[in-house]
Amino acid sequence: MLVKSFIDKQIANELLAWTNTQNLYCNESNGQYGFYTFLNDLNKHPVCINEIRKKCQDLIGGIYQEPIYKDFVNEVFVDGFVYEHTDKTVKSYKHFRCNIMLQKPKQGGKLVFNKQPIDLEVGDMFVVDTSIMHAVSIVKGDLSYKTIVFGFLCNE
Prior knowledge:
By secondary structure, this protein is α+β, with helices and mostly antiparallel strands. Helices cover 15% and strands 44% of the residues. It has one domain (2-155): B-lactam Antibiotic, Isopenicillin N Synthase, Chain (Jelly Rolls, Sandwich), CATH 2.60.120.
């Protein structure tokens, strides 16, 4: 599900500036030149984080925070990508990820869901059912692909 302008550009820019002050190189993504860091491992969260998470939860009816990957910031650098994959979930629950675009590469770096590229603009959100194949295409240009991602478990 694509939600245009889920957060306004001012908030997206605030989150981008905050993420640029953090060390995001903790965990390698499923691919090349991509990294993610759990939000809980980052410092001095902007106040809007909890509000955005609640807005995501209300939209999709999330019951619990997804316990494996939780919430995180994801960055894929130039020439990087994320392989097509599905994510684990807890039995009897659907696993959804709310991916909010903070920085869009000049070329490439598109979220690919069920083999279809999704063109997100800064502030847009795409909700991924992680049981369906998803990926990030090769990033080109001089900007990385950067998203903030909130994970939820929902009843099947």
